[in-house]
Design goal:
Length: 161
């Protein structure tokens, strides 16, 4: 399960381009959540809202191969990684949320993603498509994590014209 997001330029186009490249390079499409517009989380400055979407793919790749490919896709779509102490706006961001029920902890990769339970912009789209999925570390369903989440940031269904 991957979270796609971005808050710069043509946000919808970047989500769709990322989804297409992920499917081309990593595996087959299983399902996707609706697209949500989310209040920026963790930013010190005022920045534009994000569009976020969760997609589920089936892949023969390993988690590290998925990380490598998703980072390549981010670069191909123009994302520039900058080392900074705070969050920055971005054209596209692709996070690995879950990989089956595996628990992985490397320097560069943690699965499940360590902030899932704290972020409404992740939990809302996850809840739409897999509300009964049990978080393999916290041992709670996505729906339970959402109802207990202390994040009050706005997450609204994005309606295209």
């Amino acid at each position: 399960m991957l979270l796609l997001g971005g808050n710069l330029d043509d946000r919808l186009k970047f989500l769709k381009d990322a989804e297409n490249l992920i499917i081309q390079q990593l595996g087959s499409f299983v399902c996707a959540s609706s697209i949500y517009e989310s209040e920026p989380w963790g930013f010190e400055d005022e920045v534009p809202p994000f569009l976020n979407q969760v997609i589920i793919i089936s892949t023969a790749s390993t988690p590290l191969q998925v990380l490598q490919k998703t980072q390549e896709i981010e670069r191909k779509l123009g994302r520039k990684k900058v080392i900074t102490a705070h969050y920055m706006s971005r054209l596209i961001d692709i996070d690995i949320l879950f990989f089956n029920d595996e628990c992985i902890s490397f320097t560069t990769l943690h699965i499940p993603h360590i902030e899932i339970a704290n972020r409404r912009f992740v939990l809302v789209p996850l809840n739409e498509i897999i509300s009964d999925y049990m978080h393999p570390v916290i041992n709670k369903k996505i729906s339970e994590l959402l109802s207990e989440c202390e994040d009050t940031g706005s997450v609204a269904l994005y309606v295209t014209n």
